[in-house]
Amino acid sequence: MRYQILHSPVSPSTPNHMILPVIIYKAVEEDFKSLFQHNHWHGLWTGSVFNEQHFHPDTHEVLGVVSGQATLMIGGENGSTIEVVTGDALLLPAGYGHKCITASKDFTVVGAYPTDQPFETCTQYDQLQSINQTINSVMLPEYDPIEGNSGLMFKEWHNIYHCGTYIK
Questions:
Q1: Which of 133, 154, 161, 162 is 20 to 30 Å from 107 by CA-CA measure?
Q2: Domain residues for 43?
Q3: Residues 164, 156 contacting (CB under 8 angstroms)
Q4: Residue at 167 is within a domain
Q5: CATH of residue 71
Q6: Predicted structure pTM score
Q7: pLDDT per residue over 58-88, tens digit each?
């Protein structure tokens, strides 16, 4: 599977994750809703990406592009602007900012989370050290949202950060 990795430093609007990168899966051919459900990701929703920079300090998130294309800002002002198209999926670590800059009229994503717990959506942060404590306490997912028991998440996330907080 083709993929891309993004690392972004702290931005004024988003803390991002100190260690984990964003994983962009390219040209996924399966139905995202079925795929995420099968791979034990929860809270499925269908819609778009907010046009305001935001992040989730207490959960990871996956976004699968089911139609159209868009330009997204990932990682805030110090991050990257990327183009996504139908079949792309983004695995966003806790704390990573994301925002839609422009999108086709038919741009639609399916989103999901690794747990079925409530989570917070933030558009800013005050204390970097405090928000990083929340971000770093988020457990690594048990399943890759695209490949289940194997996959890029295990290569790019699990292999780079082994800490008692992350391993069950």
A1: 154
A2: 3-158
A3: no
A4: no
A5: 2.60.120.10
A6: 0.92
A7: 999 999 999 999 999 999 999 999 999 999 9
